[in-house]
Amino acid sequence: MDVKPPATDPAAAAPAPAGSATTGGGAIRERLRNLTLRQQRFERCLGRRLRVDAAGLAVMDHLVNVGPTTPTDLARRLDASTAATTLVIDRLVAGGHATREPHPTDRRKVIVTPAEHWGATAYEHVAPVIEGVTEAAAELSTDEQAVVAAFLERIVGVYDEATDR
């Protein structure tokens, strides 16, 4: 979401120039905002390349990184209704991105599994980002990496706290 705090004068609304030291972390906030916008743009591009909508990408990300699961578990983990999750799964199955298979121990349930090719195909598109982030991090000293990691962990905590309200 792209929300800026209200500004009383036009100069307060302008982004800080690159490299400027501002009080309150304005330059850092702006860079985080730009990073978020770039990530969102990348995810839209990835969705177009893979022919999957945003909800489908979230489901497929979970299936590839966590593993096959039931539709109910997917809905719970993605904080979505079971009805909405079922519609997403229907689209993924129809598009050849995922399959429904019988649950190995409970005949009443199904397991949603990514199509065999999906992880490798998605990775081809994501690999340049992973490699670029890895290279950028490797260029930092150990102390710089520790500072960046601690800062990012604090930002994750801010989002978690705002979400848990």
What's the short version?
This protein has 165 residues and is mainly alpha-helical. It has helices spanning 10-13, 26-50, 54-65, 71-77, 82-94, 118-138, 142-163; strands at 98-102, 110-114.
Instruction: Give the number of helices.
Output: 7
Range of helix content: 55-70%
Q: In terms of per-residue confidence, which ranges show pLDDT below 50 for 5 or more consecutive residues?
A: 6-14
Shape: elongated
Separation, N- and C-terminal Cα atoms? 17 Å
How many whole angstroms does the radius of gyration measure?
Answer: 20 Å
Quaternary organization: single chain
String of helices and strands = HHHHHEEHH
Order the strands across the largest sheet as they lie in space: 1-2
Largest sheet: 2 strands, antiparallel
What report would you give on this structure?
The protein is mainly alpha-helical. The protein is 63% helix and 6% strand. It contains seven helices and two strands. The chain has helices at residues 10-13, 26-50, 54-65, 71-77, 82-94, 118-138, 142-163; strands at residues 98-102, 110-114. Strands 1-2 form a two-stranded antiparallel sheet. It is elongated, with a radius of gyration of 20 Å. Residues 6-14 have low confidence and may be disordered.
Give keywords.
single chain, mainly alpha, 63% helix, 165 residues, two-stranded antiparallel sheet, 7 helices
Write the layout of secondary structure elements.
Elements: H1 10-13, H2 26-50, H3 54-65, H4 71-77, H5 82-94, E1 98-102, E2 110-114, H6 118-138, H7 142-163
Helix pairs in contact: 4-5
